[in-house]
Amino acid sequence: MLFGRPASLSSPPGTLIVPLSLIGTSKKELDTPILCIDLDRMEANIEKMAQLCKAHGMQWRPHEKCHKTPAIALKEIAAGAIGVTCAKVSEAEVMAAGGVTDILIANMIVGQRKWERVAALRRWADPVIACDHYAQVEPLSAICQKLGVTVRVIVEVNIGLDRVGTRPGQDTLQLAQAIDKLPGLKLAGIMGYEGHLLTIEDPKEKEGKIREAMGVLVGCRDQLLKSGLCCDIVSAGGTGSIYITVGCPGITEMQAGGGIFMDPFYRHKCGVPNLEYALTVLATVVSRPTLERAVLDSGRKTMNPDVALPVVVGLEDATIKRLSAEHCELTLGPKSQDLKIGDKVELVIGYGDFTTVLHDDFYGFRNDRLEVVWPIQGRGKIQ
Ligand SMILES: Cc1ncc(COP(=O)(O)O)c(C=O)c1O
Questions:
Q1: Cα 333 to the chain's mean position, in Å?
Q2: Residue-wise pLDDT tens digits, 279-312
Q3: Is residue 7 pLDDT above 50, yes or no?
Q4: Are residues 253 and 330 in the same domain?
Q5: Is the domain of 35 the same as that of 87?
Q6: Which residue has the CA at smallest separation from atom 2 of ligand 1?
Q7: Distance separating alpha carbons of residues 172 and 177, to the nearest angstrom
Q8: Of 52, 53, 63, 131, which is best to mutate to test ligand 1, by the most ligand atoms within 8 angstroms of its C-beta?
Q9: Which residue range is the domain that position 343 belongs to?
Q10: pLDDT tens-digit map of 219-233
Q11: Which of 50, 59, 226, 340 is 20–30 Å from 189 (CA)?
């Protein structure tokens, strides 16, 4: 085996697990497929997102569902993030083991084992959990009480996505009032996600609708405050809406995370400017059936094309024709027809979230030289 794996998932984040002899190797000399990060670009994106939030007086709590890697979360925190947002309890456990303490689990948590895990997490982290019903938090309250710990809770409000969330108004207020009375829990605020508004093409319409949705969320905050309840956290936002949501008054925390890698979905379907592509797959040409066709060693098991197709780097007239499990067929125009079997081809991932979960490791490069290999410690953490 070329690379040694860490003995346990709790090995320190940022651990170099690549043999020193490979450090500094040029990208194109490595075996494929591999998932590559351009470290300069990722760091610049992290800095931009952190600064954007800071300039608007908003806390940045980036969603880690795409990178799932404590070493990257710690870079975000070093740049100014207050902690992370997670989708699953097991992701939060990985983050906590990696040294992240302020962790929002922006999802409904249901089941005795999960409630026990959340309460146990409280021993070395300070999680915040979302809920939209009393049934999700009453049992957690009992467990927290027994363990003598307090867990922060926020109410997720349905601001139009129609996925989960309480109805704005009385339903939200009543749930918040009920949580406030539960021992072992601390009502900390509310959240909403404007995921249904990311791909509106007309910028004015998009801005108007997002501002309206944020207005609904802030209206809920006002009701909570008026009733004497705590509402320190008003959390929202995603990369596809970051430049609008960050300017909405009353929102205290920004959840946008995927922008640290940027991708064609955010750029072309959400119209997000100013961030650079940082996540690619390095592939090898394994077949050249015709002058106009090349086949790469990287199919759907390496890069998920469902939300947006990958984009070929540096071959301007090469396009993706078809992806099967282990093959990617390219259609080549005249400018790329000298591509040979064995050549390396780099592809920008169309949408990071569904691709990172296919890989064990990120390969981090600076100026195309290997600097670090990070295990994607949250990979497979779906509970
Ligand atoms: C609850 C929640 N917050 C925020 C986001 C945005 O994440 P990202 O910025 O990575 O697109 C999502 C995306 O699915 C989400 O479900």
A1: 35
A2: 999 999 999 999 999 999 999 999 999 999 999 9
A3: no
A4: no
A5: no
A6: 193
A7: 9
A8: 63
A9: 20-39+275-375
A10: 999 999 999 999 999
A11: 50
